[in-house]
Design brief:
Layout (H helix, E strand, L loop, with lengths): L14 E8 L9 E8 L6 E4 L9 E5 L2 E8 L5 E8 L6 E8 L1 E2 L6 E8 L6 E4 L7 E5 L2 E8 L5 E8 L1 E2 L6 E2 L2 E2 L12 E2 L7 E6 L5 E6 L13 E11 L2 E11 L2
Parallel strand pairs: 8-14, 16-21
Antiparallel strand pairs: 1-2, 2-4, 3-5, 5-6, 7-9, 9-11, 10-12, 12-13, 15-17, 18-19, 18-20, 20-21
Length: 254
């Protein structure tokens, strides 16, 4: 009888390979992709990842970091195996380098300076007050949020708590003024009082009579209708969370 030649060149010579399209791009996210390649064998092929369901699709997506084994079989169920490892991306790490709290008198806002590592540099910043640098000024009292985005569009939200600090604006009372309309020292001035609008001023003469009173004093009293001489003042000021009393003598020179 005639003996037919059988082409065995494609039998039992299936080889599988792996093309890693992308490793883990963002920490904690299953986003890696691989393409399984084949040489030899007889198509069509079926693929199974870590003994999972067989599929005809050689592209695997949404993979978490870790070790994998892919099994391939051709139409004759000839097998091939390939292994690969998906590398994890380091998380975005934020360090608070420095922080400045708010002056309770409101003369300046809070500030913060950040140092960022991990993920994929460079990074972009979007603070809740609109700042776009790693250092931010004019932060408000309470929680301030910054959204940090790395080069792979991985996002981390970080919060900075700004507290209410002590005031750096101490009051300085000038004890002599000369209201003679020469444009120099015509008003009784308390330096930095503008930061503390909740105040009340009382001027008393030598006989103990109140000769001038003013709530929310704004450094605009020129001693009108008072004679030259020395007077006693009482200035009650709400300084942040404390009511403080200042008193002493001032002299009017005309």
């Amino acid at each position: 009888s005639d003996v037919k030649a059988v082409d065995v060149s494609n039998l039992n010579n299936l080889v599988a390979g792996v093309n890693i399209i992308s490793h883990n791009l963002c920490y904690g996210v299953s986003d890696a992709q691989v393409q399984i390649t084949t040489t030899g064998g007889v198509p069509p092929f079926n693929f199974s990842l870590n003994s999972g369901t067989q599929t005809s699709d050689s592209l695997f997506t949404n993979l978490a970091p870790g070790s994998y084994q892919v099994s391939v079989r051709d139409i004759n169920t000839c097998p091939a195996i390939a292994t690969f490892v998906i590398q994890a991306k380091d998380p975005i790490i934020v360090d608070l380098v420095s922080k400045g709290d708010i002056d309770c008198s409101g003369s300046n806002g809070g500030s913060a300076e950040l140092s960022v590592n991990g993920g994929e540099a460079p990074y972009s910043y979007n603070w809740s007050n609109g700042n776009t640098q790693s250092t931010s000024a004019n932060l408000t009292y309470g929680i301030n949020t910054v959204t940090i985005t790395d080069a792979n569009n991985c996002v981390l939200n970080y919060q900075v708590m700004i507290s209410m600090g002590e005031t750096t604006n101490q009051l300085e009372v000038l004890n002599v003024f000369s209201p003679n309309n020469d444009g120099i020292n015509d008003y009784w001035v308390v330096k930095n009082l503008e930061y503390f609008p909740e105040n009340e001023l009382v001027i008393i003469n030598r006989w103990g009579n109140e000769v001038y009173t003013q709530k929310s004093y704004k450094n605009d009293w020129d001693g009108t209708q008072l004679a030259e001489g020395t007077y006693f003042y009482i200035l009650n000021v709400q300084m942040c969370n404390e009511l403080k009393k200042f008193s002493g003598y001032i002299t009017i020179i005309r």
